Amino acid sequence: MKRTYMLFGMTVLFSLFLLTVNVWGAPYISFHSYRTGQDAIYIVDTNGKNLRNLTNHPSDCCATWAPDGRSFAFLSHRDGNFEIYIKTFNVAQARRLTNHPELDYAPAWSPDGNWIAFVSKRTGESHIYKIDINGKNLQRLTNQGDNFSPAWSPDGQSIAFGSIGPPGLYVMDADGKHPRQLIDPFHVGGRPRSPAWSPDGKQIACVVGNNGDDIYIVDTDGQNARRVSPLGIWSNNPAWSPDGKWIAYDAYDTEIAHPPDNPNAERHIFIVSVEGGEPRQITQHPGQHVSPAWVPESFFSVSPTVDTQTTLWGRLKQAERMTQ
Predict the structure, then answer these.
(1) Which of 9, 88, 109, 206 has a 20 to 30 Å separation from 151 between CA atoms?
(2) What angle separates helix 2-25 from helix 304-323, to the nearest 10 degrees?
């Protein structure tokens, strides 16, 4: 009888373990949401399940992940001014990275884990800067026009960004040298912005604004531009999945005319195949859900939920020894 109970207990624990592994093994996306009436950063799996609040603070948004998954940088107004912060797991408090009275925003973590690129209006215009993850070695990278949305290439050698003057999508070396226009607005029929590199570094996803905003994919030589989101649905903030197969983005409610002018318009997170096709809506809760970013798989090795997996596995092994 005792052995029967032990075997039953093992079966239950093993089932729980498999369920936990299946749930947390799914790809996850972080995003910024105003679902509770306060800004916060959440993660959710690509089935729209297992929602989790990462920051529990009423003024946080726009996460970018460290390559090792142990930290993320984000924008916050928690000290009375918009600055960039870093949150490391197993550390209670977020650490402020920038400290300037003008707006700092749009952080992007470098592939080698050493730098954060971001946008700042500290000179009156929006320019791209980078700073090391200890808050040292601030460098201004752009010198002309209003620039925004920096995105590191997978090898860390280049940074793509959008610009208003002259308008277009640009690429520069990681030290700010050799800026060059990648996409001319006339080439794609609208102003391109918000670039995201493919994992192999051969393509860039971006937003093209025309009658509504659309997600396009273009080769890094500026050729073969093609739309992958539904036409004119006001889609923004593309993020390329680590396996190179999907684009996550946020989009407005399609039933509202010119939704950017409507404060009550809903925005949701979608994913779409890089080959195009019907997008899948990830978020369902009313409100605005924006700025998706794919969560590194290594995040789950430091997540408290993985600690639960380890505990279950330990109990399973203990029960197995007791029945031998």
Answers:
(1) 88
(2) 160
Task: State pLDDT tens for residues 52-109.
Answer: 999 877 789 999 999 999 999 999 998 888 999 999 988 888 999 999 999 999 999 9
Residue 218: name the closest of 197, 232, 200 by CA: 197
Enter the pTM of the model.
0.83
Which DSSP string corresponds to 11-60?
HHHHHHHHHHHHHHHS-EEEEEE-TTSSBEEEEEETTS---EESS--TBE
Name all contacts of 230-235 with Cβ < 8 Å and 24+ positions apart.
230/254, 230/279, 234/259, 234/260, 235/207, 235/270
Cα distances (Å, whole numbers) of residue 161 to 37, 127, 158, 307:
31, 10, 10, 39
Overall number of domains in the chain: 1
Q: Six-digit token pair at 28?
A: 């996850």
Identify whether 116 is part of a domain: yes
- Residue 22 falls within a domain, yes or no? no
Quick check: 197 and 154 in contact, CB under 8 A? yes
Pairing of strands 280-281, 267-273: antiparallel
Helix and strand element counts for the chain (H, E): 3, 24
User: Residue 200 falls within a domain, yes or no?
Assistant: no
The least confident of 130-144, 171-185, 300-314 is 300-314
| Residue 219, in any domain of the structure | no
Q: What are phi and psi of 59, to 5 degrees?
A: -150, 35
- The β-bridge partners of 32 are 41, 290
